[in-house]
Every structure is written in C-alpha cells, then in structure tokens.
Amino acid sequence: MTPNMIKCSPVLIVALVVAGNVHAGVSAEEAAKLKGELTPVGAERAGNREGTIPAWSGGLTTPTPGFQNGGRRPDPFAAEKPTLQITAKNMDSFADKLPEGAKAMLRKYPDSFRIDVYPTHRTAAAPQWVYDNTSQNATRASVQEGSAGPISKGAFGGFPFPVPKTGVEVMLNAQVRWRGAAWNQQSSGYQVTADGRPVLVHTVNVDNIAPYYYRDEKPETFDGAYWMVRVSTSGPAIRAGEAILGHLLLDESKTATWVYLTGQRRVRKLPNSCCDTPHPTSAGIVSFDEIETFATRLDRFDWKLVGKKEMYIPYNSNRLLVPTKDTDVLGPHHLNPDHVRWELHRVWVVEAALKPGQRHTSAKSRYYIDEDSWWPVLADRWDANGQLWRMPFSIPVAMPDIPAVVGTAWGTYDLLSGTYFVAELMNSAKAQYTLLPERLPEKHFSPDALAGDSVR
C-alpha cells in the first residue's frame, strides 16, 4: 500500500511553503473509510491473504478478572506457544519481514538472541470518543511548517492523519499515540555493558499527563501541550533526589525541559532538549529522539513514506511484566527472549534522511510504526559512516483497562559497541502503569513545583 506520488511545479511548491500547509486533510469520501474498509484509527480492518494476520474486530477491551489498577497486567495469551522461532540459522528465510537491526542482533549473538513468534492478536483499541475525534481530524487536520519542523494543526483528541499520505503525517500520528490521559509509572533503567554486566542507571517515579486527550477540553482552548512528564529519581544513591520535567508541545520550538541536580541545588532549563542531545534520565546513554523509539522534532530530516509492510515486531508482550525482578528480564547482551513476544503485524515504514547542512549522530533512520496503535515499535539507525549502528525498540503491552496497546520497556541496542540500554522496566516496582484522574493539577508540572519539592 504505497502512497501515491504527486508531482508539483516549482511555482506550486513555493505557494505551498508560503501558505504553510503541506497537506490539509482528506476528502469526506476517504474519511468514510474509517467506518468500513479501515479501522477507526486508520488501519486496514481486514486480515491478510494468508490468514496470519486476522481482521480487527474491536481490539481487547475487557480487563482480566481480578486485575487492579497499577498491578501487573496479566498475559491474556499466557497459554499460547510460539508458532515459529527465528534464529541465526533460519533468519534468511524470513529476512524480508525483519528489521535490519533484528537481523544484525541475530548475527551478532547467534547463541542467545532469537525471535519467538506467536499467533497475531490485534488488541489495539481506544475509547469511542477518540475514534470520533479521529474521524473529525481526518478532514480538518493539516500539516504546517514551523521553526522546529512540521506541526499538526486543527487536530485534537484523536489521531490527526488516520489516512496518511506522507511520512511526516505518520510520524505526527505517532507523536500523539493514545495511552490514556494521565498515568503514573514506577520503573528502573539499566545500561548493560559489553561484557554483560547490568548497571542501574535510575529508579524513578514518573507522573504523566496528555492534555491533548483531555476529554472535556475544547479544541479552540487547547494550548498545544500533548505530553507533560515529571520524573523523580530515587536511585541509585548517587542520583537520588534528581528530577526532570518535560513539556512537549506540537510546536516543538516551544517544547521545554528542566532538570534538578542535587549538586547544584537548583532547577535549570536545558538549552536543547531534542534530537541527538543525550537524555539526562538515561545518564546520557540514549538521545532525546530515541525515547520510546522516537520523540521530539522532525526538522532535521527529510521523511519518506516507504509504504506499509508485514513485519515481525514485539507485540502483546505482557509476558515481559510477569517476572518479579528486573534482573530476570535482563540478558547479558539483550533482553531475555523468553519474556519477549513477537507477532506478525502490518507496519508503516518511514525513512528519515539527514537534511543538507543539518547535524545529527544518525545520518539515516528507518522507523516501523504499528498500523493499529501508531506506536513506533522498532527503528534502524545508521551512523555518519553508513554503518548500521543502533536499534531503538519499544515493547508494546495490551492494556484493556485503558483500553490501549502501550509501549512499556524501551531502549536501544548499540550494534557496534555491544552495549544496550533499557528503561521503564517495571518488574521490581510495587506499582507499574497506574491510571490517574484525568486532570492532574498542571501546577504539578511547573518548574516552581519541581524546585519546591526537590531534595536539597
């Protein structure tokens, strides 16, 4: 399903740039597909010809009996066994359905890395009001160029471009992926060294709000903040008391990040919280734009929509939440494959190529965006020398109580050095992903509140 290519005259291109609109919605006829041929968020409703991808029938919306908010979300498919196991020995037979990073991991660690493929379940879902907003967005949303790159305009409370025509539109859908309006996470992050030693980087308590998804908000009063996050660090001891605050806005030129460092005893605004800047919560191991596979601004790259493809990706991996210790999940060179479930799904493939005159440690990237949830699940990244360098990942989990499919553990495999980083491991936490009242006080997400509550 490759997008149509439209040739424009130079005069028309100039006119579009001046007007600021790259694309302004789809026709009512195309939007009507969201109630038939497509799911309410724009995925293909039908299964594939081989029957290995089923039709979408509403997703998983019934929580497992006995589940309590904040507790471990049980594996709804715990009784299933893998139907296929991909290893270094047989990977060539499945190469067309594997990201380059996954193939590199199979070659690099032939004795330990494997891909256990389970039956595909299309569990992604959202509330009806999100579907309704997505339907309205389809005809009214537009892409405009801002000083920090493309911005979605006219969209609110749903995916802005459920029938995408460009790579930018796909990435803007991923930017506002649905995961609830307010939630708390307790988790830890680790660097695993090349010789297989896990090093605790942080243990954190994280409050999140998504004002873009405030159900009672009016589109005309929405100020552009699609995600606000406040992170409090309790470990390891050397980092206890640190805190970070982020305001992410659709206009990324207004995105801002503040940090509190105990040694300085003050809150500082970071001058550049985007792109390949090292992220403080990861102790500088991953960049801002590798958070949950991809985050922040789009202006440094040209974005090409390659099309849609069937790929093996991590999915419905609730089994990752089952172990009660983080160390049970951490392998010496990668996550323990016993706890990672892979399935065959259709993904949007988008390539990012560094624009002339721009700077970034990754000159080229390729992203794989799940069609059902718009979650950026995997990526391949190449360095300035053209070497395949990193594989960012995010492990989606079925959360029918929201309802949603939500990426939990995320990180990056360094394919050259042999190290890896993983964050949002919740196995050792007392509570995991807890839904909060929709409207937490926004003053809780202010720099003054961060300063007032910080440890001195």
> Whole-number average pLDDT?
92
Topology, number of strands = 19
CATH architecture: Clam
Distance between the termini: 56 Å
- Overall structural domain count: 1
CATH topology: outer membrane lipoprotein receptor (LolB), chain A
Radius of gyration: 21 Å
List the helices and strands in order: HEHEHEHEEHEEEEEEEHEEEEEEEH
Outline the low-pLDDT stretches. 1-21
The CATH superfamily is Lipoprotein localisation LolA/LolB/LppX
Largest sheet: 14 strands, antiparallel
* Shape annotation: globular
State the helicity in percent bands. Answer: 10-25%
The CATH class: Mainly Beta
Number of helices: 7
Report strand %: 25-35%
Structural class computed from helices and strand pairing: mainly beta
Provide structural commentary.
With 456 residues, this protein is mainly beta. Helices cover 12% and strands 32% of the residues. It has a single domain (84-126, 159-453), classed as Clam (outer membrane lipoprotein receptor (LolB), chain A). The protein has helices spanning 10-19, 28-31, 100-108, 128-140, 167-175, 326-329, 447-453, and strands at 21-24, 84-86, 115-117, 142-146, 149-153, 182-192, 198-209, 225-235, 243-249, 256-261, 266-269, 301-314, 342-354, 362-370, 376-383, 388-399, 404-414, 420-425, 433-435. The longest helix is centred in the N-terminal third of the chain and has 13 residues, at 128-140. Mean pLDDT is 92; it is low at 1-21.
